[in-house]
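Sequence, C-alpha cells passed on for absentees:
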Amino acid sequence: MKYYGLNELREMYLNFFEQKHHLRLKSFALVPENDKSLLLINAGMAPLKPYFTGQEIPPSKRITTCQKCIRTGDIENVGKTARHGTFFEMLGNFSFGDYFKKEAIAWAWEFVTKVLEIPDEKLYVTVYKDDEEAAKIWHNDIGVPKDKIFYMGKEDNFWEVGTVGPCGPCSEIYYDRGEEFGCGSPDCTIGCDCDRYIEFWNLVFTQFDKNEDGSYTPLPNPNIDTGMGLERLAAMMQGVRTLFDVDTVKAIRDHVCELAGVTYGADAKTDVSVRVITDHIRSVVFMSSDGVRASNEGRGYVMRRLLRRAVRHGKMLGIEGLFLEPLIRTVVEHSKSEYNELEEKYDYIVKSLTVEEQNFNQTIEQGLNILDGYIAQLEKGSSKVLDGAACFKLYDTFGFPIDLTREILEEKGFTIDEDEFSKEMNLQRERARNSHSETSYMGADETIFNRLDTNITSEFVGYTHKELTSNIDFITTNDEILDTVSGGDVFIITSKTPFYAESGGQAGDFGLIVTDTGKAKVTNTTKVAGAKIAHHATVLEGSISVGQSATLIVDMKAHLDIARNHSATHVLQKALRDVVGSHIEQAGSNVSKDRLRFDYTHFEALTSEQIGEVENLVNEKILEGLDIEIMETSIEDAKKMGAIALFGEKYSDTVRIVDMGRYSIELCGGTHLSNTSQIGTFKIISETGVASGVRRIEAVTGRAALEYYRVLDRTIDDITKAVKAKRTDVVKRVDGLTADYKNLQKEISSLKSQIANQKASAAIEDSIEANNVKVLVKAFDNMDIGALKEMGDTFKDQLGEGVVFLASHTGGKVNLVCMATKGANDKGVHCGKVISSSAKIVDGGGGGRPNMAQAGGKNPAKINEALEMAKRTILEQIG
C-alpha cells in the first residue's frame, strides 16, 4: 500500500466527503459545551448530539469532521502497552436524516479501496446479528464475499449510551495486517485479541430510540454516525505496529529519546516512560490550547494527573530540570496545520504547562521527604506494609505517583497495602464522576423549551435595531406552555428581537414588550434550546397572547451601560497583554450594566505598579477616542488581521470582528459602542486570584465609575471633618494621628505593666507554700488571655520556685492560665492536668505542657470553684 502521513490522511478524508456534499467543520473544543455528561470530548459525534436529537437544526444535513478527543479511563495502562493512548483524532462523516446505510457503506468502501487503494482481499466487515439490511448491502451492492461478512452480537455491534435515547446497529471494517502481526493460532480470525485483524472504521446506523422500558422505537429520520481513528488508520497506511510509530507521534517520541539520551526499543522499562511522555504531552498541549487549566477537580484534575505523570517519567529517564517546553514546540509543529489554535495560543500553553511543571518539581521533593518519614517509621516497627491511606495522601495531595511509591518501598524491603489504596482510589474516582452528572443522552437537563417546535427559531436583529415589531411565537412558564398570560413571570419568545441574549459573558438586555392588550417588563434575555431567544418578562398590564404582534423596546440606558463595560473589557485585555505579557488570555468575563469582571490567565498577583499602568493605558485609549468598527469577514482574514479568539470557542467560516482603532481586534458577537470615548472613564476596583493560574479584575466605567468617585469623594470629606484637616493636609494629619496612637499604645502598655507589677507584689502575699513550693491561685477582672499570661510570667518571676494559677472573665468568657517553674515540675506539678480539671468546672476545655497550660470556659459564675479545684490539684501533685 502507498505510504501516507497522518496530516495527509486527514485532509484526504475530509476532502473526500466534501466532494460528497458534506459541510466540513473544524474540530470542536475538547471542553464540552452544555453537556454535563462529559468532562472532555471523547468521540467525534459527542459535540453533535443536539443535531442527532433534533434539539438544534444542523448547519447542513451532511457534516464531516476530524475531532480531537481524549479518553482517560485507563491512564494507568498508557505506556505499559503500545496500544493505549489518551489523545487521538476521530474522523467522521454524519447524516442527520439525509442518507442512510446504502450511501454510508458505499462511500466508506470507495474511500478505503479507491482513494487509499487498500486491496479488497485485505478487508473484512462485521454487521449486527439482526441487521440483514446492512449485510445485503455489503454483499449484493458492494460485492464483499459472504465468508468475509461476520455477524456479531449486541455487545460488539450495537451502539447505545445510557438507558434511553438514540441508538442502532453498527458495521465495522477490518484490515488484515498479515500473519506476522498475528498470534499464530489456527483459529485466529476477526475478533481475535492479537494485532493481525484491526478494526479501523465503525459505521453506526442510528435508527432507533430506546425507551425507558427497554423497547426500541424506529426513528422517523434515521442518522449516520461514523468514526475512524486517524492514528490507527495512519499506522495501517504506514505499515507500523503502533500509534507511537506513526510519523507525527514518532517525531515527539524521538524528541523525548533525544532529551533523555536513550534509544527507543532498547529497554522495555525505558520504552514505558518514553510512551507515557509522548502520549501525555500531546494531551496536555491540546487541553491547554482549549483553555483547560490544571487543578484538583474535574478536567483540570485529569490535566494535572497527565502532566505530572509525564514529568515523573522524565525524572525516571534521567532528564534534568524543566523539559516540557521543547516537546510542546514539537507537538505544535506537527499539528498546527489543522489546529492553528496551537500556534495562536503557544505563549500561553508554554507558560501554563511550565508553571505546573515547576510546581510539581517542588511538590515531588516534598513527597519524597514525607515518604522517607514513613519509611523511618516502618523501620522502627515490625510491619513491612505501608498503609494505603498514607500512599493515597502522597498520590492525591503531593501528586506522588503510586508506582513510584511502590518502587521506592520495594527497594527498602517494604510493600504497600494495595487493597486500602484501591479503596481510596475508588472513592476518588467516585468524586471525579460526581463532578459531572449522569444525565440524559444530551448531558443536559431538559427544560420546557425542549418541548417547543424546533422549526421555529428566533432572529436577533439588535445590532441595527433597538425597537421593532414582531410576532409572539411562544409564551411559557418554567413548566407550562401558555396561550395567554395576564400576570406573573413568564418567558416570551418572538420571531425577531432587538434584545441581546445573555452570551459570551455579556448580560442580556432589559426593556419592554407591548401589545394592543398588555405590557410586560423584560428583566433578562437568554438563549434557550432550539435556537430560540427567551425574554424573561413580568406582565405589568393587561394580557399578552401567542400570535399577537408586539413592539419590543430595549432599555437604552442599561444597554449603553453594558456596552461601555463590554468595550472597556476589550481594551483591558489588550492593555494587560501590553503591560504583563503575551501569555495573557481571557479565561472568562461578565459584563453587566453595573460593572465588568474579567478573568485572565496569569500565575501571580499584579503589582500595584502594573495595575496602575494597565488602568492608565485603558484610560489613554478612551481619551484618544478610537473609532470602534464592526465587520464580518472570513476566519482566515480575521486571523491575518491579528484578531484575538477565545479559548475553545467554535467559530464559523464567517466571523464578526470588533476593531478598536487597530489597537484591540477581537472576534466577538456582543454589542459595543461606536467610539472608545463613550466609555467615559475606567477604574479598576480589585485584582484577585480565583483559581490556579487565573486572576480576576473587576472594574467600573461610565456612570458607575462616576458614582464610585462620588462615594470616594464623600468618604474623603467625612475623613477631613473627622480629623479636622484640609483636603490637602488630610494624609499628613492621618499620619500624625496614627503616630500619636502608636505612642499612646506604648504608654498604655507600659502603664499596664506597672499596674501588673503592683498587683503582683500585692498578690504574692496571698501565696501559700507546700513542700518548699509557693502556690498562687488568683482571679482578676476583665483580662484577656494575653494579659493573663503576661501577669502570670510576672508572678512566676517574683515567686521563685512555684506555681501560678490565674483566672479572669471578659465578655462573658472565662480565661484560665497555669504556669510552673522547673523546680515545681520536679516536685510533680503538671500544669496541663491542673488546667484540664479546672476548665471542666467553668464549662470549658484546654490543656498544655507541664510548665504551661491555658483554657477557656463559658461559665464565669463558677470561677471560684475552679480556683479551689486548681489549688486542690496542685497541692495533691506536690504531695
Notes: Confidence is low (pLDDT under 50) at residues 436-442. The CA atoms of residues 632 and 656 lie 4 Å apart. The longest helix spans residues 346-380. The first strand starts at residue 23 and ends at 25.
